[in-house]
Amino acid sequence: FEPFFTTKMDVGSGLGLATVHSMVESWGGHIEVESAPGQGTTFTLWLRVWDGPEIPSQDTEVVEGSSMRRCRLLVIDDDENVCRLLESLLSDRHEVEIVSDGQEGLERFSPGRFDVILIDLGLPGMSGDRVAREMKRVDPAVVSVLITGWVMRPDDVRLRVFDFQLPKPFDDLDEVEDVVAQAIDLHDERVDQAD
């Protein structure tokens, strides 16, 4: 279930099972696997039975154990696999837009349009920290999350513009969701302070 792990040659992204595992866990279930060389593989999914008459609306959806509300996310990354993983992981609970470069991200950005931005540092044409700095100038309430595979020193000046950091590859998809929840809370605090 490790993200980006694949045994296929030149096919697949290694995201299929990681995505399934994340989705099943987000629904309160779990997944078991039995596999033997030459015998095949069996996956067993255990999901909770829905026992309530009421389905919360998406606008007021609250994730169990947190105050996370539905928000608008912008993901800026030139790695298609990362974008697909984040979209798959987060789009059930949030509105997610994906762009592959900083300039397109800036063109889509406007005050109040997005609550949280997840930005790769090494983008073509314009660095992620420069994109985040410009977006925060336009909308000071927006929360920026750095998603990078680079190992960076804590005193690196490029980190100053980011509120949170997630290392790639994402070893723990729950951590991604936790950081997004914290980012939403920070955004809402900034909006309340501005009022």
**Helical residue percent?**
25-40%
Q: What's the rounded overall pLDDT mean?
A: 83
Question: For the report, how would you describe the main beta sheet?
Answer: 5 strands, parallel
Radius of gyration: 18 Å
What are the segments in which pLDDT stays under 50 over at least 5 consecutive residues?
55-66
Terminus-to-terminus distance: 44 Å
Q: What structural category do the secondary elements indicate?
A: alpha/beta
Number of helices: 5
Strand content: 15-25%
In short, what is this structure?
By secondary structure, the chain is an alpha/beta fold. The protein is built from 5 helices and 7 strands. The longest helix is centred in the last third of the chain and has 22 residues, at 173-194.
